[in-house]
Amino acid sequence: MTASTSFPALGSTATVCVTRADVLELASGAVGAVLAEIDRACSRFRPDSELVELNAAAGRPVQVSETLFGAVEAALRAAALTGGLVDPTVGKTLRLAGYDRDFELVSARRAVSYRARFASVPGWRAVRIDGRARTVMVPRDAELDLGATAKALAADRAAAGAAAAAGCGVLVSLGGDIAVAGTPPENGWPVRIADDHRAPLDTSGPTVALRTGGLASSSTTVRRWRAGEAELHHIVDPRTGRPATTPWRTVTVAAGTCVDANTASTAAVILGDHACEWLAERGLHARLVAESALTRRVGGWPAEAA
């Protein structure tokens, strides 16, 4: 019998689902431990995080924990796979644009009191890592933001850790990032697709069955804020240093891991009109929803009931 629980984590909501109700607490504890570790390593918004220290190092190599090193590796891999479309060196332009604290605080700030600024993106190739010494060097005047991949990495690691600890099938959802591990329910894990992960369960939208790997949604509709007269969102196009101009309000991708799904969904938003072709070339299954509500499906994404 499946069971689930939810709690706040990583500026979002963590949901843990298990195929055995008697081990829900054990699985939830394992997930919480992974998320706390990722937060200490990768948060841009807590002054004691490793990432804040790394960004302040002004071009000096810094020895980091295995957790932060793995998160930086994942971010650089995402950048390489997408030709730099998903680039972790967007941190400075995000901060100047106003995304400089937990999003609840960003959205609560008086819009008239803030004017957004932007910066060029140094590019992921300028980041240097040394696996033997476990050091990372961020160029002077550059800032890493790992938001595009660290939350997805946390979902993958949390699901795997919880499944190992609890000995059952586990689904972990962190906002729009979902990972599964262990043996799923007979018909797979039902996942409702919506623009906003906080939407009630009875919100209209398709449901898909997830049995392995991960699912991720990238959206321009939820993390939006005003800065003066401008309305901004958090998905930055590294080519311009500004929020991506895109026809898509939400892109959902299924892949072998949540990190790969998140990488592809973010890249697709930025690619805009070329997203469907790019996703198809990579054999990915995806659902793209335009601002007009027109829906496109790629690969084996199931058709929706009329």
Give the topology, please.
Blueprint: E1 3-9, E2 12-18, H1 24-42, H2 50-55, E3 62-63, H3 66-81, H4 91-97, H5 103-108, E4 128-130, E5 135-137, H6 147-166, E6 170-174, E7 177-181, E8 189-192, E9 207-210, E10 214-219, E11 224-227, E12 230-233, E13 236-237, E14 242-243, E15 248-255, H7 258-271, H8 275-281, E16 285-290, E17 295-298
Antiparallel strand pairs: 1-2, 2-6, 3-5, 4-5, 6-7, 7-10, 8-9, 10-15, 11-12, 13-14, 15-16, 16-17
Could you characterize what this model shows?
It is a single chain. 31% of the residues lie in helices and 25% in strands. It starts with a strand and ends in an 8-residue tail after the last strand. By secondary structure, it is α+β, with helices and mostly antiparallel strands. Helix 1 (24-42) packs antiparallel against helix 6 and helix 6 (147-166) runs antiparallel to helix 7. It is built from eight helices and 17 strands. It has one domain (3-298): ApbE-like domains (T-fold), CATH 3.10.520. The strands form five sheets. An eight-stranded antiparallel β-sheet has the order 1-2-6-7-10-15-16-17. The protein has a three-stranded antiparallel β-sheet with strand order 3-5-4, covered by helices on one side. The protein has a two-stranded antiparallel sheet with strand order 8-9. Strand 16 and strand 17 form a beta hairpin. It is globular.
What would a concise description of this structure say?
This protein has helices at residues 24-42, 50-55, 66-81, 91-97, 103-108, 147-166, 258-271, 275-281, and strands at residues 3-9, 12-18, 62-63, 128-130, 135-137, 170-174, 177-181, 189-192, 207-210, 214-219, 224-227, 230-233, 236-237, 242-243, 248-255, 285-290, 295-298. It is an alpha+beta fold and 306 residues long. The strands form five sheets. The protein has an eight-stranded antiparallel β-sheet. The chain has a three-stranded antiparallel β-sheet with strand order 3-5-4, with helices on one face. It has a two-stranded antiparallel sheet with strand order 8-9.
